[in-house]
Amino acid sequence: MKILVDAKMSNKVRDSLSSYGEVVSLPKWKGLPEPVSSHPDMLFYPLPDGKILVGRDYYNENRGFFDALGCNFVLDEKTPNGEYPFDVRFDCLGVNGVLYGKDGFVSEMIVRQYQSFVSVNQGYTRCSVAMLSEKCAVTADRGIASALSKNGIDVLTIRPGHIELKGYDSGFIGGAGALIEGGVYGFFGDLLSHPDGEMIAEFASRHKIKAVSLSDEPLSDNGGLLILREAYLR
Predict the structure, then answer these.
(1) Burial profile 151-178: b = 16 or more Cβ within 10 angstroms, e = fewer
(2) Is the domain covering 2-232 a CATH 3.75.10.10 domain?
(3) pLDDT for residue 113 is more than 80
(4) How confident is the model at residue 82 (pLDDT cuts 50, 70, 90)?
(5) CA distances from 59 to 63, 70, 159 (A)
(6) Domain residue ranges in the chain
């Protein structure tokens, strides 16, 4: 499988990820601020129907890159552009038929594929949540934690900060890792560099999830991952 990652991801994390699949750096998108210009969770959304949504302008500007991937992409007429909240078009979170995001700023193509929509104040919704599985999550955002809990998700609420993202005071826990394969959640750096790292690892273990530190570096927000499994390939 191919693993699409932030162009600025560290070599140590890339090397660890390469044991799971081919690691591919994403082209930067000029419409987003430089620190997040190639963050997967800002540029794509894996739809429930098995296709991947991407903005038309970003796709057209990098047509050769996308053609080489051999993947089924669906094009949104609008591409995330500018500063917050105009950059969160794809940065929403879908779990168990419910979509969480900032009302009025999420792509309608995403909203239409879910049974219900829950509005939250934090527009960087997917960035803010480490979904360890469809049953459990980790976040520092209390509003999102409350919304998820009301829909039966077991949520561990951690303290904010302590995650590197160049150009910003801090990154988000959701952007600092991803579910790599069944039961394995990889963190971009040393999970124990976060003051709540041990608590996160114990919470994951209770839910039969193995939390893996992909390097010995400080935890870093790289916008998660986009994994192209066989189901996505044409």
Answers:
(1) eebebbbbeeebbbbeeeeebbbbbbbb
(2) yes
(3) yes
(4) very high
(5) 6, 13, 36
(6) 2-232
